[in-house]
Amino acid sequence: MNYSGRHSLAGTYKQHTFTNSIMKNTTKLKYILQLYTVTIEMDEEELLHFTLTNKRTGERITIIDKSYSVVVGKAYVYMNKQLRKRL
């Protein structure tokens, strides 16, 4: 395989990984927003405060972390746990 073949494969892999990462968080956020109102704030220490307010009950929870991916992931897990409780 020549250099240009390896280069284009590596570029495709990086682009594909980046796109999947964004799509996963975007998809999670889409599902979260169907059930919750979301507020995102950042404090002086650059921590994200991701507050979920249930649209039906008004119940609130705040998830705090430095990473957007982490807070969205934790919010998605929380949402799924709440849905399972209803079943």
Describe the protein in words.
A 3-stranded antiparallel β-sheet has the order 1-2-3. It is an alpha+beta fold. 60% of the residues lie in helices and 23% in strands. The longest helix is centred in the N-terminal third of the chain and has 33 residues, at 3-35. It is globular. β2 and β3 (60-65) form a beta hairpin. It has a single domain, classed as Double Stranded RNA Binding Domain (2-Layer Sandwich). The protein is built from 2 helices and 3 strands, in the order αβββα.
Coarse structural class: alpha+beta
Helix-residue proportion: 55-70%
Q: CATH first level: which class?
A: Alpha Beta
The first-to-last residue Cα distance is: 54 Å
Please describe the biggest sheet, giving its number of strands, its sense, and whether it closes into a barrel: 3 strands, antiparallel
For the CA atoms, what is the radius of gyration?
A: 18 Å
Any low-confidence stretches, pLDDT <50, length ≥5? 1-20
- Please give the CATH architecture: 2-Layer Sandwich
CATH topology grouping: Double Stranded RNA Binding Domain
Shape: globular
Number of domains: 1
Question: What are the salient characteristics of this protein?
Answer:
single chain; 87 residues; alpha+beta; Double Stranded RNA Binding Domain; three-stranded antiparallel sheet; 2 helices; 3 strands; disordered N terminus
